[in-house]
Write a structure and sequence with these properties.
The complex is a heterodimer of chains A (about 325) and B (about 270). Chain A folds into two domains: about 230 residues, Rossmann fold; about 80 residues, Nucleic acid-binding proteins (OB fold (Dihydrolipoamide Acetyltransferase, E2P)). In chain A, the strands form four sheets. A six-stranded mixed sheet of chain A has the order 6-7-8-3-9-10, sandwiched between helices. Chain A contains nine helices and 18 strands. Chain A is α+β, with helices and mostly antiparallel strands and about 325 residues long. Chain B is globular and about 70 Å long. Chain B starts with 6 loop residues before the first helix and ends in a 5-residue tail after the last helix. Classes of the chains: A alpha+beta (about 325), B mainly alpha (about 270). The interface between A and B is medium-sized, with 22 and 16 residues.
């Protein structure tokens, strides 16, 4: 069981309030991702759940039990840190065994559990090495192994892939997702990378300045952002946001259209635009254009389009995919 | 691009470096040379050529007991160091990992006590030692030397502990380690180089301390510093014997320092460059 409930959780550091008031339900077995820009409070919220920071107000319940005042170890949570936080003076085996040793388990039980975790994570050949002798990906697996052996109620990941190169990040993303499918344990994952959020999460919590902007599945957030912040944050490249007369025509303060919902033509269309930068990715073409009618836009076209800097193109928006936002930044129905 | 240095310049700076090193080492060198002279030779005047006699060392050992003050120095230096580390580790941990607004002020205040002249508190300390029966006792001196070096020990450990990533201790906390478990299983093993060099420095400071060791002891607990001072008599200073006694007093610490110089240098410069 790994149901976690946050009720009116607040956190201040001295006179600065970083988390004004958060209410959130995390169901047992869910993979929840906290995503947001730097300084939005996502790591702070994770640390409050872990018990590494004291809350200024509110309660945290784990499986109905109030753990607000409980020490981290008593909450039966396991955490994987951004810097792995492995014990450099211990071997891989001792690192993984450490929580079991602290729990007072017998040496035989410890050996068995360590061997099993090593097998699951392909670390069996590295058990006698020290962290300094491992690659980044191996260290990350040791950190995960140390978390797994505790058989926690939930796993907490604090930007675990941000220190890895792009290729390794992709591989580890898959491994963590597979681990979740295998263990079916609740996982709370903090990242500023929305690709990780979109690909891994059952549920995304978008945070901004300590407030929850929106909670929902990745596609819900992508297709129906509830406000300008979520609309601009989720999706890469960013959603094009247009104000002025064009927005007013749609009855909104701001309208948004995703780059892939603008049809590109070299002959005719609704908006004429000049290409500033063309990014040819092979599978897609990203065009950064400027239109007199609309302003700067980013367009994603499938496949290879042979346009370059200085070329004139025509764009036609898919009106059914238009997003409308009011003066308060909230989405209009 | 690397700076090019001419051969002439390099030779010149090498000579300067050797000259500076010789200048710094010269007092010790001359003490050893004087210890190998006869007493008349020693008071005759400046001379770098001794007659290579060991009579002074024999006399220092036979006429005055060298062994007891030597053992006192060892016990007091090592004892005060161990006691200091036991007290300083939790203090430095608290300052490094649970700092408050006042932490830096407390640290500065502790270090400021080293700036106070010892003579200012000689009388009250002497009276306290007298009233508690601690005069001329190893226990009293161990405690005293621990206290006077404690600010430096705390400060050095504080700078080492600050270099240890806090996340590793948080990981230990998440893994179920208690506070003492964190310190014992994780912090101390990681900080061993820092703790070792702090202990080395403390042993040197305690071994060389001459103000309190002379004033708070007479015979029983007198360490080597008091032993050397005792060679001044109403008849005058016995230079050659004094030099032999001094050489015997500083030899252990010189040898220890020589073998642990890498640790010492590392310890004193740790954290200067990331």
């Amino acid at each position: 069981m790994g149901q976690i409930t946050l009720k009116n959780v607040t956190k201040s550091f001295g006179g600065t309030t970083v988390i004004p008031n958060i209410n959130l339900e995390i169901e047992d077995g869910e993979f929840v991702v906290f995503v947001g820009p730097s300084g939005c409070g996502k790591s702070t919220l994770l640390r409050l759940i872990a018990g590494l920071e004291d809350m200024s107000g509110g309660t945290i319940l784990i499986d109905g039990r109030d753990v607000t005042r409980e020490a981290p170890a008593k909450r039966k949570l396991a955490m994987v840190f951004q810097s792995y936080a492995l014990y450099p003076h211990m071997t891989v085996a001792k690192n993984i065994a450490f929580p079991l040793k602290m729990a007072g388990e017998s040496p035989e039980a410890i050996e068995k559990k360590v061997a099993e975790a090593a097998r699951v994570l392909n670390l069996t050949d590295y058990l006698e090495r020290r962290p300094g002798q491992l690659s980044g990906g191996q260290r990350q697996r040791v950190a995960i192994g140390r978390a797994i052996v505790r058989q926690p109620t939930a796993f907490l990941f604090d930007e675990p892939l941000s220190n890895l190169d792009a290729a390794l990040r992709g591989t580890m993303r898959l491994e963590i997702s597979e681990l979740h499918n295998q263990l079916k344990t609740t996982m709370i994952y903090v990242t500023h990378d929305q690709i990780e959020a979109m690909t891994m999460a059952d549920k995304i919590v978008v945070l901004n300045a300590g407030n929850i902007e929106q909670v929902g599945s990745p596609l819900d957030l992508y297709r129906a952002p509830q406000n300008l912040f979520v609309a601009g944050f989720i999706g890469s490249p960013r959603m094009n946001l247009i104000e002025g007369a064009l927005a007013a025509k749609q009855g909104a303060k701001t309208i948004g259209i995703r780059p892939e919902h603008l049809a590109v033509s070299t002959t005719s269309g609704e908006w004429q635009a000049k290409v500033g930068v063309a990014e040819h990715l092979g599978s897609d073409t990203l065009l950064h254009v400027h239109s007199d009618a609309v302003g700067p836009l980013t367009v994603r076209a499938g496949g290879e389009i042979g346009v370059n800097h200085g070329d004139t193109i025509w764009l036609t928006p898919d009106v059914s995919k238009l997003h409308r936002f009011g003066p308060d930044g909230k989405a209009l129905k | 691009m690397a700076r090019t240095v001419s051969t002439q310049s390099r030779i010149g700076w090498t000579i300067v470096a050797w000259a500076a090193a010789l200048l710094i080492f010269f007092p010790i060198l001359y003490t050893v040379i004087t210890s190998l002279k006869t007493e008349p030779e020693a008071i005759a005047g400046f001379s770098l050529i001794p007659s290579f006699t060991f009579e002074n060392y024999v006399e220092v050992q036979t006429q005055r007991d060298y062994f007891r003050p030597f053992m006192n120095s060892v016990i007091i230096a090592v004892g005060s160091t161990l006691l200091g580390i036991i007290i300083a580790v939790p203090a430095a941990w608290s300052m490094a990992f649970s700092p408050t607004r006042r932490t830096k002020d407390v640290l500065m205040w502790m270090l400021s006590t080293k700036m106070m002249p010892a003579a200012a508190v000689l009388v009250p300390i002497y009276l306290i030692f007298r009233d508690f029966g601690l005069l001329d006792s190893r226990l009293g001196l161990t405690f005293m030397l621990m206290l006077i070096n404690l600010p430096i020990v705390v400060w050095m450990l504080y700078t080492y502990f600050r270099e240890i990533p806090g996340e590793i201790l948080e990981a230990a906390r998440m893994d179920g380690a208690s506070l003492w478990g964190e310190i014992w299983h994780v912090l101390t093993p990681m900080a061993v180089p820092g703790i070792a060099s702090t202990m080395l420095l403390n042993i040197i400071l305690a071994w060389n301390e001459a103000f309190w060791t002379i004033r708070l002891t007479t015979t029983n607990a007198a360490p080597l510093t008091a032993f050397i001072a005792s060679f001044s008599s109403p008849q005058g200073l016995f230079w050659a014997k004094l030099s032999a006694a001094s050489t015997l007093a500083i030899a252990p610490i010189l040898i220890m320092g020589w073998f642990s110089q890498r640790q010492l240098v590392r310890g004193l410069t740790f954290g200067a460059v990331k």
